[in-house]
Amino acid sequence: MHKQVKTLPLNSLSSIGGYMKRHFFLTITIKITLSFLLFSTTAEAKLAGKNLLLVHGFQLEHLLSAPTDNGKADAENYWRNFEPATKNPESTRILHWPSHLRIEGQHGIAALLSEQLTTILSSGFCDNQCIIVTHSTGDLVTRYMLANKYSLLGPELAEKLKVAAVIDMAGAGGGTEIASVILDVINGINQSSTMVEIVKFISGVDLSAATTTGIVTDLQPNIARNLALNHMDAIPHLRIASTGNEDYFGFLSDMFIKGGDDSVVPLHSTCGAVFANSYSSCVKDLAMDGKVQHVNDAPHSSELYDYHYPIILSDALAHTDMNKDIRGNSMTFALEGASRYEDQNANALALLPEYEVVTFWWDWFNEYRLITGAQNKSVGRVIIDTFE
């Protein structure tokens, strides 16, 4: 481990966690070279010289009207405002799937994705390893694909699906309690006018008119957590989690979700926790706003799924901010998750994070660990710069 410490003069901070304004602070910029993970950009298109697979999340409109192209156009639109450096057509492929289907089954989501991967892998696209970037339900879909690649692709192609790492933004691999609420409305179990209006306000559509439940069924925590736990590959899943509120419905969805959440997915899922418990952070030594402190209601490292490592946290980012060019949000770097990654992945690539340790006189000079310049960047740009 090599450390370079640079002390900067007093400065001012316009925002931290979206609410702290016009404070003076002492900044210590720490740039560390660790032996965990190197995500360098090659020709502004690759991470660590690897080709990319992008896997989108749940698309609510598919429950009302099934797409005629299996969601291809919607998938491309889903990533339209994501970091341009990740979307070079020569080194990036966007996988698509429709949300009106379930994951399993002869004509399910996994079967459709295996058809796409057959073409992609046959071209040698992942021969030098790929990095997969997921958002939301894309985490659950990807986890299932990787856990069942031999039965879905066959031995020859499965061996060609070589994955260096998976970066999960707001990962819903552990499900979300909001799925059960939506299912009740669709199935007519709770059709009270109040509940229908609440779900309509949260979702933006009248889901009582939906003709299918699709992957929402798989997103229930008890089902999601049993879909892809067998034969899990030793592939690092690097988690980006947050607890910011969506502008219009976050205060409502919070009523149904257990613990901290990003207005759609709870921390027990986005952190990669084994148990669907109520958590306020992903790691024991850091709050979501970057404050360095002990957090009682956070999962112990032994309570995270194997090969799942919280790396970037934020108390300001909302769920739908992750895959868009949204700026102005502070983010913090989880050293505990990164250290565990290093300990368990001795032959992995190296991570070059840059962050600041900030102290505030009005908070008794407690330390906050903030990713340098994150407030001026989108999540995609922070991925490019942090995983450098």
Give a summary of the structure in a few sentences.
The chain is of the alpha/beta class and 388 residues long. The protein has 12 helices and 14 strands.
Secondary-structure map:
Elements lengths: L1 E6 L3 E3 L9 E11 L7 E2 L3 E2 L3 E5 L16 H7 L13 E4 L13 H14 L7 E6 L2 H10 L1 H5 L1 H6 L2 E7 L8 H10 L5 H11 L17 H4 L12 E6 L7 H4 L13 H4 L37 E7 L17 E2 L1 H10 L9 E7 L5 E6 L7 H8 L2
Parallel strand pairs: 6-7, 6-8, 8-9, 9-10, 10-11
Antiparallel strand pairs: 1-3, 2-3, 3-13, 4-5, 11-12, 13-14
Helix-strand string: EEEEEEHEHEHHHEHHHEHHEEHEEH
Per CATH, what is the topology? Answer: Rossmann fold
- CATH architecture identity: 3-Layer(aba) Sandwich
* Mean pLDDT over all positions: 85
CATH class: Alpha Beta
Q: Which structural class is indicated by helix and strand composition?
A: alpha/beta
Could you tell me the radius of gyration in angstroms? 20 Å
Relative helix content = 10-25%
End-to-end separation: 16 Å
Our estimate of the beta-strand percent is 15-25%
Largest sheet: 7 strands, mixed
